[in-house]
Amino acid sequence: MEKLSLRDRYTLVTGASSGLGHEIARQIARDHGGNLVLVARRRDRLDALADELRQNHNVQVACVTADLSKRDDVERLFAEATAGRTIHAAVLNAGVTYFGHGLEMDFAAFESMLATNVSAVVWLTQKFLPYVIEKSPGGGVMIVSSVAGTTPTPFQAAYSGTKAFLNHYGMAMSEELAHVGASASLTVFAPGGIATEMGEKSGTARKFKKGDPGMMDVDVCARLALAGFVRRRRFVIPGTLNQMNDVLLRFVPRVVATSFTARIFRGALPPR
Predict the structure, then answer these.
(1) Which residues, in sequence order, are CB contacts of 272 under 8 Å at separation 6+?
(2) How much of the chain, in percent, has pLDDT values that exceed 70?
(3) Residue of 10, 98, 131, 159 marked active site
(4) At what angle do helices 107-114 and 157-180 cross, to 10 degrees?
(5) pLDDT of residue 240
(6) What does the buried/exposed string (b/e) look like for 56-68 if buried means 16 or more CB atoms within 10 Å of the residue's CB?
(7) How far apart are CA 27 and CA 108, in angstroms?
(8) How far apart are the C-alpha atoms of 2 and 83, rounded to whole Å?
(9) Residue 201 has what pLDDT?
(10) How remote is the C-alpha of 257 from its chain's centroid?
(11) What is the model's pLDDT at position 268?
């Protein structure tokens, strides 16, 4: 297939109120001339971003308020996003994390994480891919995962597990699409550390700060995500350091890799 073109077409972006999703949406409008459907829980932030993109880049922008941990919201999102417009691409970026001792994680928080990071992504992927193939051939879906899904990550055990699922699910689905010659592509984007609001909320920003080795600026990360998406790459890890770590850890016993990762993250834990 040719490169994925976003110009003058609608791309849906979940988790667009802050962080990577916010910057991806901005770059789709600014650099690709694409229209947008912005999705998040915080409507005020969505409206502010929508106004900015309409004014500065002359694109069409719609907003949908949804909590992707709730199945009813996920189903409503798809219905509202596709009402009166054709979606050509979807960036499934919304996600939540938990940083701390795994045994101290509230199970309700885990269920909410599982619903947001896994169930909503699978549901939307299974809805949008057939939709795009039928309604807008040549489009695609990008699942935003994490390098935390390539190696077990202590103190982010549940989050790491959800991202491991996305890595395997996304890669397997992309192969299925290629096998049948589908007119749509699926990309998994797996960044490492990004200087965003998520790090501040989770507490990892106590150790991993903007400018540190391995911490990528959000604008650079978004640009690399979109570059891989439009080229229809199946799996993208951005950044030389992240790519080197991914290769090296494949040759290290899992217990050693996990212990090494634990030492890196232990320093970000709050004092007990």
Answers:
(1) none
(2) 92
(3) 159
(4) 20
(5) 87
(6) ebebebbbbbbbb
(7) 35
(8) 27
(9) 56
(10) 24
(11) 76
